[in-house]
Amino acid sequence: MRTARASETFDATVAEAESCWYDTTRWHLWVDGLDRVVEVDGAWPETGATVTWQSGPAGRGTVVERVIAHEPLLGQALEVKDGSIRGRQSVAFAPAPPGVEVSLALEYELLRRSIVTPVVDLLFIKRAMAASLAQTVSRFGAELAAARETR
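Structure (tokenized):
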């Protein structure tokens, strides 16, 4: 499995970041590629809960995320599946000056493989995954700041 990562530090508390991250009604504002959340099943963000979301026309299609671990104020791990990949995504929240570090990682495996898959993955797909995670974390920071301003 390949791993892509992104992290940033924001001026907020761990509790504020966690609350904003788990609010699926706001995901369309910051999750890269997400068009709309289709369904939340179970007690999100608790273990066993799932979120199904749809990407835009040029995106990943239908994505299903199932919680496999959740530790309040620390983070969450998910099984992730779409038409092209399956893997494990994790988010972690940690106190860091000036507030909270949010780290997002995706360990993924490509479902369609060929002899050139390792090269294509190394040169293109992993970079695109890392850029998407970085975009998500960056946009999350803007949404977190906006949420703090409205309080």
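The CA atoms of residues 67 and 78 lie 4 Å apart. Residues 2-149 form a domain with the Alpha-D-Glucose-1,6-Bisphosphate; Chain A, domain 4 fold (CATH 3.30.530.20).
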